[in-house]
Amino acid sequence: MATLWGSRGGAVLDGEGSTEAVTSTTVLTGAPTWGNNARPASTLWWDGIAISANISDEDAEATFIAMMHGISSDVIKANNDATVWLGDGYTPSAASAGVTATAAGGAAPYPMLPFMGTLHGALGAEISDFLQGSESAEQALMDVEAAYTAAATEKGFLK
Amino acid sequence: MKNRTFFWFILPSLVTMMLFIALPIGSVFIQSLHIEHTTVLKEVKNCGPFGCKLEMQVDVDATSQLKKDRPLGKFNGFGTYKNRNHLAVSELSTAWTNSPTFGVFLSEAYNLPFYRALAFTLTYTFLVTPLVVMLGFCIALAVNSLPKRIKGPTIFVSLLPMIVTPLIGSLILFWMIDSEGILGASLQWIFEDPSLSLKASPTLTWAMLIVYGVWHSAPFAFIIFYAGLQTVPAETIEAAMIDGASRWERTRYVILPHLVPLIVFIALIQLMDNFRVFEPIVGFSAQASATSLSWIIFNDLAGGEGSFFGSAGATSVLTILGVAVLLIPVLFRTWRDFKGKVV
């Protein structure tokens, strides 16, 4: 059993970078859940589009039209297996079964919040003791909380 | 020298020192007393591919206006120094009252990032410095007794570890001790333990970093001792030989006392150098097992999760204080020698 990024599913099953022994025996499914199947223990990330504020209005309009065409259901249908689409007209494949199940299970979108970077930093610094086996998970999480509180206070996210 | 003349004589260096040493340290200290402004939050409706909901978001305009008005940030006094990620004053006092034994207290302290880094930094400094002095002295003695023709090439080869950029040197050693590298694979074969990994064990990582530190710095001590050996008066050595002193006795009672000022000098430079150990930790990717004060500063400034200027400033000031404490014995000795000469 392995936990992978949802977008890696295609490469595992496509028979190009993989072997017959792997593709015929591998099944992708949703992320593990917590709280009695209440919620997948995962977050959803997706690619988005953005238009720069300092380009001319005509360019912005043209960009917007091109991008909306790029995610229209016709394009999605024509390129169904190129990626895991979030728009209408997408039919999930074996490669995206895991992502679709996770999304359907009610996984939260990844919080695009300014203090997530600070939380990542605290997690990265303090979780290694647990991964090395020198500390309990509870202690490691308490350390993460303490490290984050100090860092977020300095960043102005906490008072 | 008249006071007036003396003043004009040292003015240029005084100005330069103010500009390039005192002012930057002062600015770092001021920065360490500040934290970022409290972010202004506002409630907005956020719509994504999975529905809309109300959430609190940072009011970017209001927050950047705050930053523009007072770019230094919010005054925090010594709050950053005392918080959990630095001196951890309240955490330490809680641990002190709650720990049944001193050992438990130590392990609680070791769980705090600053003290963990300090533990490695001090261990590294106090092991590498004497080892470098001893190894450098031995290499210098050995090279000095070589025949003239092969002396030059030997000196050049002995200096190579110092010439290699620390980051590259540590990276090379890091690959060698990889389980597929020449040293790692040999160790696995010798101990017949295929799961043996120098990188996975904190103790072995410390040992590895210290070995690297000695390897890297020994040439510095060697070249200075070698230069010092050329100044040992031949008459004294000859006299000692006539008196029947063995090679060991000549080294111990003639050469070593002659080189004492150099030992003090090397110890001083090495204490400062080793206290700010940094590159090998990055080169060995050892931060899970060993961090140093300099590594914490680097991580605060460029760890990839935004910059913590207040934290970096606080750790920098604490590092300067640490170096000052380390150097007091050596400086005291120099001052005493100097005073002795005047009298």
Structure description:
The complex is a heterodimer of chains A (159) and B (343). Chain A is mainly alpha-helical. In chain A, the strands form two sheets. A two-stranded antiparallel ribbon of chain A has the order 1-2. In chain A, strands 3-4 form a two-stranded parallel ribbon. In chain A, β1 and β2 form a beta hairpin. In chain A, α6 runs antiparallel to α8. Chain B has a domain of 231 residues: MetI-like (MetI-like fold). In chain B, α4 packs antiparallel against α5, α10 packs across α12 and α11 crosses α12. The longest helix of chain B is centred in the C-terminal third of the chain and has 34 residues. The two termini of chain B are 19 Å apart. The mean pLDDT of chain B is 89. Classes of the chains: A mainly alpha (159), B mainly alpha (343). At the A-B interface, α6, α7 and α8 of A face loops of B.
